[in-house]
Design goal:
2 domains; alpha/beta; Arc Repressor Mutant, subunit A; 11 helices; six-stranded parallel sheet
């Protein structure tokens, strides 16, 4: 059973998420919080597997709540940020805080259910729209970086060596690029003409070599260090 904590200051939204998730036999909503501070407290008390986290809330925002939850070794929940993209900086602050997934508030019921199951299984999840923003933001930052050597983009080996625990194989690099394009394991398998089980092995190896806890962190590290 996947235990879920819902965090949002709008009761109607929490009720909607509860109604959707409660239809699934393998998902149980174990609690609700209206503020970030409540989320931190309940995460420690209820030990959920997944937390859906709003960003703008009274008392403590979702970014700070995520940071505290992820920093607590006793809490093993994955945090999914629920965003409307009103403020792009929230997205990137939450990535740095350790969020494991991002969903749009207008996501359909199946997307929410799929995201909860993926996070519970240890996989990060990014909506395609989120991935495009991550790529665009880090690309623009790299292009605008003052005094950056013009040859740097063509020679990623230096930044790669600083982040990789072990060099990626050619196939692992291909998998990483497709991960950064928000492809699922099944889509990666189709694109590379390999089995889905093989993709899972490659993904695991990529995470291990990057020292990433999930796909989301792997994508962010890859983009930041010029690996995609």
């Amino acid at each position: 059973m996947i235990r879920v904590l819902l965090v949002d200051d709008h009761a109607m939204l929490r009720a909607g998420f509860r109604a959707i998730l409660s239809t699934q036999p393998d998902i149980e909503v174990v609690g609700e919080a209206a503020t970030g501070a409540e989320a931190v407290t309940l995460a420690a008390q209820l030990h959920p597997d997944v937390i859906t986290m709003d960003v703008q809330m009274p008392d403590m925002d979702g970014i700070e709540a995520t940071r505290r939850i992820v920093a607590d070794a006793e809490i093993t929940a994955s945090v999914a940020i629920i965003t409307t993209f009103d403020r792009d900086e929230y997205l990137f602050q939450a990535l740095d805080a350790g969020a494991g997934g991002f969903l749009l508030k207008n996501a359909g019921p199946e997307e929410l259910i799929t995201a909860v199951r993926a996070l519970a299984a240890g996989d990060g999840i990014l909506a395609p729209e989120v991935t495009r923003r991550v790529v665009a933001r880090f690309a623009s930052h790299s292009a605008a970086a003052p005094n950056a050597p013009t040859a740097a983009p063509a020679t990623p080996s230096a930044p790669a060596s600083s982040v990789l625990h072990e060099p990626l194989t050619e196939r692992e690099s291909e998998v990483l690029v497709l991960m950064a394009d928000a492809r699922s394991n099944a889509e990666i398998a189709g694109a590379l003409f390999i089995g889905e089980a093989t993709v899972k092995t490659h993904v695991s190896r990529v995470l291990q070599k990057l020292g990433a806890r999930d796909r989301v962190q792997a994508i962010v590290l890859a983009i930041r260090h010029g690996l995609t």
